[in-house]
Amino acid sequence: MTVAPTVSSDERISKVGLARRLLIRPELGAVVGLIAVFVFFAAQSPVFRSPAGIANWLDPAATLGIMAVAIALLMIGGEFDLSAGVLTGTTGLILVTLATRYGFDVWTAMLAGLVVALLIGLANGLIVTRTRLPSFIVTLGTFLMLQGINLGVTKALTGTVQVSGLRRAAGYETARTIFAGTIEIGGTSFRVAILWWVFVTAAATWVLMRSRAGNWIFAVGGNEQAARAVGVPAARTKIALFMTTAVAAWLVGSILALRYTSVQANIGIGQEFIYIIAAVIGGCLLTGGYGSAIGAAIGAVIFGMADKGIVFLGWDADWFKFFLGAMLLLATLANRLVRRYAEEVKH
Amino acid sequence: MIIQTRDIGKSFGSVLALREVSMSVEAGKVTCVLGDNGAGKSTLIKILAGVHQHDTGSFLVDGSEVRFGSPREALDRGIATVYQDLAMIPLMSVWRNFFLGSEPRKGLAFDVATARRVAREELQAMGIDIRDVDQPVGTLSGGERQSVAIARAVHFGARVLILDEPTSALGVKQAGVVLRYIARARDRGLGVVFITHNPHHAYPVGDRFLLLNRGTSLGEYGKGDITREELTGLMAGGAELEQLSHELDRE
Ligand SMILES: Nc1ncnc2c1ncn2[C@@H]1O[C@H](COP(=O)(O)OP(=O)(O)OP(=O)(O)O)[C@@H](O)[C@H]1O
Ligand SMILES: [Mg+2]
Question: Which chain B residues contact residue A230 at CB under 8 A?
Answer without folding.
Answer: 87, 100-102
